[in-house]
Structures are given as C-alpha cells and as structure tokens.
Amino acid sequence: MNAILRAEHITRRLRGDVPVTLIEDVSLEIGRGEFVCIMGPSGSGKSSLLYLLGLLDVPDEGRIRLAGEDTTGFGEKELANCRLERLGYVFQYHFLLAEFTVRENITLPMRRLGRLSPVQCVERAEMLLDRLDVADQARKRPHQLSGGQRQRVAVARALANDPLVVLADEPTGNLDSASGANVRQLLRELTREMGKSVVAVTHDATFAAVADRRIEIVDGRIHGPGT
C-alpha cells in the first residue's frame, strides 16, 4: 500500500487519579485515494483515534506519519500549519461560522494559509460550491441552508486548501436519510474523482458499506484485520 497516513503503535491516555486509556498500541495505514471507515461501539475510541490521525490530539506513545513525515515532536505551531495545509475536517455538526456567508466560510482557510490572492480565494470557493452542487447558496448564511446543504458546504470548506486527507467524524449522524445518502456519496466521490484519502468515523453500516475498507475498534484497540 502507498500510505499517505500511518499510525505506528500509538497510545493515548487521560491522566488523573484513575488513568483512562483511550487508544492502546494501534498501528494502521491509510492509502492514497482510499476511503476507510472506522467503526465500533459507543466509547470504543473511534473519535479519539480520528483526532490522533488528524493531528488534533497527540499520542503519548508511538508516531503519526503524514506523507512520510514524522510528526512526533511537532510543536503546536507546526501541527497547526500541517493541519491547515494537508488535512481537511468534516464533523457531525458543521461548525460553519454564522456571521459569514457560505462563500466567506470557505475562503477563510485559504486566506489563513495565504497562498492565494483574495480574488483567487473567491474563485476557488465558487468552483468548490459549484462542484458540490450548492453554488446557488454562496451568498446565504448557514442558518438559511438545510442540514444536507450545510454539510456539503462543510465538505467544500474541508477541501479549500486541497488537503491530502479528509477526516470525517459521524458526518451523517445529524442528517435525515436522504441527506445522509448524499453526503455519503459525496465522500465516496472525493476518492474516485479527486484522489483524496478519506477517513470517516461512523456507526452506520450503510455508510461503511461504500468504503474501500472498514476498521473495527473495541476498547481502544483494533479488533481483527481491516476488511
């Protein structure tokens, strides 16, 4: 496998009077252009693992490699830059900024990265909105959109800086079945048509059925081989 993202024996614990192990000795690889679903019972460590893979949290032991680069020892500024440049995120709740229009929400990551001019940021935002079939919503604010439309905009925002990997945490968990099916198909298309790697946490077997591979996690450990 030509891995774009690799976890090597990672462990994450919450320290305190009674330490809690969230993830224990997990190793896995995500291939380029692969759609992988992480599944498991509630409290099994699915989201904890996703946050570690997405560099939103740091393992106590082990290494995370992104595009071959070892992120061990990265400071917060280096992690933030890596997240901004190479990773995109979609969550169960869209987290779009209410005071900005749809188009402005998508240009924000691009403006922060600073690689494109303001005009280029707007042009890319409009291209992404058109590709995700919500171009007619560009001037609206998030509260004016349906749940499915908001998630499509959230996917557009995740793609703003052309990331290597898109990470999604229960992206259809707050949607009706029709909107959920649309978002599921959209994430599938990211791998087939855009070559993105997608890692999604889900409890939905229908969602997981469209993935290239499923990883089962139980009590913070991978349970059996990925299928």
Can you walk through the features of this model?
- The protein has 227 residues and is α/β, with parallel strands linked by helices.
- The protein contains seven helices and ten strands.
- α3 (102-113) crosses α4 (118-131) and α5 (147-158) packs parallel to α6 (177-194).
- The relative contact order is 0.20.
Observed structural traits:
single chain, 227 residues, alpha/beta, six-stranded mixed sheet, 7 helices, 35% helix, globular
List the helices and strands and how they pair.
Blueprint: E1 3-14, E2 20-31, E3 35-39, H1 46-53, E4 61-66, E5 69-70, H2 76-86, E6 87-91, H3 102-113, H4 118-131, H5 147-158, E7 165-169, H6 177-194, E8 197-201, H7 205-208, E9 213-218, E10 221-222
Parallel strand pairs: 3-8, 3-9, 6-7, 7-8
Antiparallel strand pairs: 1-2, 1-4, 4-5, 9-10
Helix fraction bin: 25-40%
Unreliable spans: none
Q: Give the biggest sheet.
A: 6 strands, mixed
Structural class of the helix and strand makeup?
alpha/beta
Order of helices and strands: EEEHEEHEHHHEHEHEE
Q: Count up the helices.
A: 7
Beginning-to-end CA distance, first to last residue: 14 Å
Beta content comes to 25-35%
Total strands: the figure is 10
Summarize the structure.
With 227 residues, the chain is an alpha/beta fold. It has helices spanning 46-53, 76-86, 102-113, 118-131, 147-158, 177-194, 205-208; strands at residues 3-14, 20-31, 35-39, 61-66, 69-70, 87-91, 165-169, 197-201, 213-218, 221-222.
